[in-house]
Every structure is written in structure tokens, then in C-alpha cells.
Amino acid sequence: MGQAIAGGCGGATSIMASMLRSLLFVPGHQARFYEKLAKFRPDAVILDLEDAVPPAEKASARAIIREHLNGPLLAGLGVFVRVNACGLPFFRDDLRTVVAAGLDGIFVPKVESAEALREANMVLAQAEVRAELRMGSVRLIPILETVSGVLRAEALARATPRIQAIAFGAEDFTLDLGVERTRDGLETRYPRAHVAMAARAAGVLALDTPWTDMADGEGLRREAREARQLGFTGKAAIHPDQIPTINDVFTPSDSELEHARRVIASYEEAVTRGTGAISLDGQLIDVPMVERARRLLDSADA
To answer: What is the largest CA-CA distance in the chain?
Structure first.
């Protein structure tokens, strides 16, 4: 998946936007979870070496992840690893161990500076050489989960051509801000919008924070819809039951696709006739609406 997208900071494409709707966090040291992934079918998995893995289990988790990379249990999925934060003693060992064939990218938590991402880029390059991988094939996804990280979102999104996406992390962000995370999400709306706009400006994907109340399916759907409207292209999940909802929200519905086709048809017919005023169902159709409809259909096709 990471190798299918060219490096650099060019404009985001509809193909990019269609690739990562749902990303399921999986504890890296729990081998039994790997066997269930074929049933869950997220777009991608994030094999975790950070919060979900106790310090004493880090080495074991790296070995289990390495064993499963490029194996049948991960076939057909985007495969990412969330490593420990830059500056921690685990960081370099994480990258040196898990960079291998079958790995699409690395999630780097609590990123606050472009320098940290450039360090990650350097360590990744060295690991790619050792693993005989194409340089730049392993992508980087910084997780912005502090006030400083969010405020520097656009600079972080442009820090290196390896950046495939930037992700927002609400739990650590609200901790850093000194507030509680609430169900209606008032405290995260501005930072989420800021991260999504920074991603769009840099031409990378925007991935939304997980919904942590696993019993509140309506809350998940509401927040996912809000995320899509803010400009996010996908959302992380912490439980398999969340995947169908996330995929549903981030997949254009049949009615959306039909309306997009009608918008394009009306526009093209008007252009053929040389008509200046274009309307559909009493609504004025202008060029941005037509372009939005085309992007929606391209995304669905991809």
C-alpha cells in the first residue's frame, strides 16, 4: 500500500483517500489477534509496540510482528506498526527490527518537531538498506497528540517525502490541554479541523482519532461522520466491532454516487448546449460542485 503512492508533497488524490478508511490497532505481542484479522477485514492494521505493550514485552512484540510480516495472516491488508516515541530507548530498536518486506509504514507517536521526523527518516533509510528494500518504501505517519504537535501540523506533514498521512490522537491531546475528553467532542473540534486542513494543504491523508467508548456505537458513528465532514479520510479503531461503522461512513453511499453522476451529466449537457446557467433539482450547479462529484466517483472506483 505504501509503495503504491509516490513520495513528495503533491496534491492528494482520490486513490489515496480511498486506501485507508479503517485502521485497527492490534497489540503487537498478542499473537492470537493476528489469526482473527481475516474475519475483521479493516483496510489496515496498526500493530502496536507503544501503549498496548508493557516494557518487559517490547522485545517479544517486535519478534512476533517481524514473524508475521509478509505472512498469510496479514495478506491483503495495509500493515503499519506504531513504534515508541522518538527519543525513547525503544525507538531505534523498534525500527531496526520491524522494517522488512510486508511493512507499509510506521506510526510515530507524540511527534512535535520536524527534526524528530527527519531522525525517523534517517533510521528508516538505514533499516531499508539492511532489509534490501527500496529506499522510501516504508512510509511515515506522525501522530499529533500534543498541543505543540497540532499547532505545527502543516510543517510536520511536509517534514519528509515519506509522510503518507498525519493522524490525530485525542486522548493524549486532551491530557496535554488539561481537559477531559467529552462525548460531544467540543474540545477536539478545532484541533481535528486544523490537522485535517494541514493534511490537505500538504497533500497527505488525514486519519482521525479512535473512539474509545466501545459500548457507544452511535457516538462512534456521529464522530466518524463529523470527521469525514472536517476532511479526514479515515479513522482508527480499537475494537473490531467498530470497523463496519467506520467503513460505512467513509464509503460514498449509493445515493451520493447517483447524485454525483447526475451533477456531472447535467453539467456536461449544459456545456454541450452552451448554456451558462446550470441547475439540478432547483440547485445551482457550479464548477466546484462538479469537481467534487468527479472526485467522489474516482474515490468509489478506486
So the answer is: 71
